[in-house]
Amino acid sequence: MDPDADALERSAEAALRPGTLDEFVGQRVVRDQLDLVLKAASARGATADHVLLSGPPGLGKTTLAMIVAHEMGATLRVSSGPAIQHAGDLAAILSSLDEGDVLFLDEIHRLARPAEEMLYLAMEDFRVDVVVGKGAGATSIPLSLPPFTVVGATTRAGLLPAPLRDRFGFTAHLDFYEPHELRAILERSAGKLGLALDGDAAAEISGRSRGTPRIANRLLRRVRDWAQVHGSGRADLAAARQALTVYEVDERGLDRLDRAVLGALCTRFGGGPVGLSTLAVSVGEESETVETVAEPFLVREGLMSRSPRGRVATADAWVHLGLQPPADALA
Ligand code: ADP
């Protein structure tokens, strides 16, 4: 996506973000647990425990971080693993925190090792060692920090080193949403957009959103575009179907990347097993993107499975692509 389009998408997305835990749809268990963590901390007049959220992109990790700050009446500070190149970058952020601030660290699994180690200490002891000078004359000056809350988000919890994972008092994994939850999200979003959305159109979009609120909201905006340009302005079933066809979302919600991965798995590798990196190269994507974006959904849909020897297409995958499954395809 070009940078302008990307910025536009982000601001459209921000306008649809729920602002409180009550408005946050689905993920009931996580919501109830987080509610308790925050209420207990408020009752004690303390800052909340550090929170680690994991799960595929677009399921609400950033939204929950914002909600934590909002519910605690705290200021949210935002950064990410890739944005922190050196431990010094993290030291600068940490030493500017005020008491009670919520520091959201997206893609925390991508923090460089020295920054990661600095973060352990800061999370546990609210202390950071600032190194002054270089070489033999360098000295480390301990600086104490006011209590604050880290909300870490990751698409790959398994990659976090145990010492970092252990510093989080509350960890939660976000799962794909059920169609009825996505429908509720779509109805709320349509209300915010001032868009008339028919029930069957909402059902159609929610069934094709890969269990992901971000995708549901994005498709809703595309349906709105279609309805404005070609239809009556109302998001009805016809507008939903036409827009989804234009944007190459198939009837099970697979997008272009999902189909490319599945297609390569079946046609180039005979259904597998094939290693993740080989599969990723064959579709021209980073392994991490295939692993965190396409794969969780394909596995959940029963189209792909993981075996110790690599990724394998199920019989259903062949059928979905309109291909004849080999006799030994996984049922
Ligand atoms: P992540 O950080 O996990 O990639 P985000 O928190 O940015 O995902 O969520 C993407 C978009 O999806 C948000 O803008 C928000 O509008 C919507 N969204 C996510 N989760 C929910 C939810 N539970 N209820 C309503 N909207 C949600």
Automatic annotation (TrEMBL):
Recorded catalytic reaction(s): these are: ATP + H2O = ADP + phosphate + H(+)
Keywords annotated in UniProt: ATP-binding, Cytoplasm, DNA damage, DNA recombination, DNA repair, DNA-binding, Helicase, Hydrolase, Nucleotide-binding
Tell me any Pfam family this protein matches. WHD_RuvB
The entry marks the following residues as binding ATP, namely 16-17, 58, 61-63, 124-126, 167, 177, 214
Gene3D superfamilies cross-referenced by the UniProt entry = 1.10.8.60, P-loop containing nucleotide triphosphate hydrolases, Winged helix-like DNA-binding domain superfamily/Winged helix DNA-binding domain
Q: What does this protein do?
A: The RuvA-RuvB-RuvC complex processes Holliday junction (HJ) DNA during genetic recombination and DNA repair, while the RuvA-RuvB complex plays an important role in the rescue of blocked DNA replication forks via replication fork reversal (RFR). RuvA specifically binds to HJ cruciform DNA, conferring on it an open structure. The RuvB hexamer acts as an ATP-dependent pump, pulling dsDNA into and through the RuvAB complex. RuvB forms 2 homohexamers on either side of HJ DNA bound by 1 or 2 RuvA tetramers; 4 subunits per hexamer contact DNA at a time.
Any idea what this protein is called? Answer: Holliday junction branch migration complex subunit RuvB
Q: Which gene encodes it?
A: ruvB
